[in-house]
Structures are given as C-alpha cells and as structure tokens.
Design brief:
elongated, alpha+beta, Cytidine Deaminase, domain 2, 12 strands, Aminopeptidase, five-stranded mixed β-sheet
Length: 340
Amino acid sequence: MQGEASPLRIVPATPADVEALAALLVETVAGNGSVGFMHPLDPAAARAFWEASLREVEQGGRIVLCAWREGTLLGTGSLVLVSAPSQPHRAELTKVMTSRAARGAGVGAALVAALEDAARTHGRRLLTLDASLVDGPSGFYRRLGYRTTGDIPEYAYKPLGGLAPTRIMWKLLDAREPAPLPVDPAADERFMRLALELGERAAREDDEIPVGAVLVSAQGEVLGQGWNRNIGDHDPSAHAEIMALREAGRRLGNHRLLGCTLYVTLEPCAMCAMALVHARIARLVYGAADPKTGACGSVFDLLGDPRHNHRVEVTGGVLGEEAGRRLSNYFRAKRGKPPL
C-alpha cells in the first residue's frame, strides 16, 4: 500500500552496528538523555562503550537489541543479566534510547517488549531499572506496567549539567497485570472541561483556588462534582477531589466507588491520592501537574506504590496548559498582575 511505513525490525546488535549505535548514543547525550555519559561525548568513547557491551554479550552477561527500519537505526535497548548467585531471576533494563526522528512512534515500547521477551527466554522474570526524574522516562515505563520502589535525590548529573533525582522501578513479568481501562480522549477532554468550569466557580463564587473535580461512573454518568471549599467550609480536607468523592458516596450509598474515573484540574495531593485508593477509584485523569505537592508522579508517586492493595490508572496533562494557566491567573490577580 503506497505510503505505508516499512515494518520495524528488532534484532540483536552485531559488531557491524557499532558506528550507528555510537551515533545514537552521542545524539541522546547531546539531547540531555540520562544514559550515564556527559556532553559532549567523544564518538570514540561511544564506540568503545558499545564494543565493550558487545563483548559482554559474547560472554553471556548482556543482551543488546537494535530497532531498524529501512536501514536506519531508530533505537536500542539493553538487558544486563545479573550474575549474583542469589538473583538468577533478575535482569536490569538499561540504555533504552530512540532517535529524535523516531520518538512518539512506538519504537521505545516495541524495544521494551522485545527485551522483556528476551528476559523470559533467559529465565529472568524480574526487571529493574532507574529513570531520571528530570525530563526522564518514568511515565513511559509506568505506562508499560513498571512499578515504583522509590526516588533517590541527587542520583546523577544530567549530561548538560545539574544533579537530578532518579526513580527506581521494577516489573514482574509473570505477574497478572489488570487489563487496561478503555480510554476515550474525547470523553476525557469533555469531562475535564466540566472540571475546569467547576474550578472557575470556586474562584468566582467562593474566592477559593480554582480547582474542580468530576467523578464519572464506568457508564459515563456524572456521580459527583466538587471544587475547593477549604476556606468557606473551614475544612482543611475540603479539596475538590474530596468534595466530588463525598457527593458520589452519598449518591451511591457506598464508600467504594468501583470502576469510576475522577477528573481533576490539578494533580492530587497526598491526601487526595490516598482517598482515591481507599475509594477504589479505577482511573485518575488530571490537568496540570503540581511540582510542589503533586502526589501522582510529580513530587510523590503514591498511586504507583506497589505496597497498596489497589491500583489506580493515571493519565496526566489533559488540557494541562489551560488548567495551569487558569491557576496562574488566579494567583496573578491576587498580586495585582495582568493575566497570562
């Protein structure tokens, strides 16, 4: 069919691939990708790294895969097969990189899937990795089913400078993952716009921070709505999310809100995130990230903690720019500044 892209070919790396792998590594480092090197990376050093990696492959300690399309290297990823006698079941996922031209095309996800298959073939069922939290891929890995163990501050320098924290993540390949919830982007945007309207009511009617929330059933019915009421209700727990959960609980006559999705204009704090776990919410969709108190991936990742007995699917950034702008304008108005 004319215009159809050639299939992606994922195969083990060979010595003939060293030049292409070195060029991809140099490009990744120049783009501030956290792969263990600093910018500028000497191409000779990049070649030496891959030559050493392929020697490890020959010795049985590493797997290196390459993703090719029409003779062009689009990505690579590696598995380090842990040699400790007490950990014969574990491997480390590392050096997963895609070229700038291939980002957003599913190459990274295809590489990780192929590496997971290779891990199974080698009897490795537990994969671990670390992902930088500054322009890092932790969200990408989370979407692929990886869980968070914790974050380490000042873990490594970014290639362009500055210490950055990292997130330690893992995945059990033989674990039964829940089937992903169906996602309807149009519905997500529609319900988020309703939440934005509720946030405006908070500012207009109550002079509260404009955060709004909507709780929707699995059938698409709005069960609860809320906006910030901390000041008016003299209640530190009266966040928009809590107000929506309370209304839905009263309506259903149940504290368990199974199968429901919560839409909120700002990433939930720790209190609200844990309320979602206790209510057994199926999915969270939020607008703007909260770099100060966000507990769903920005500052903490409470919903990704594997110790909980319930998992909440998370989608962030839906109408995020608009939600963030409305919040900024509220505080700018308080300071006598013009809106953005």
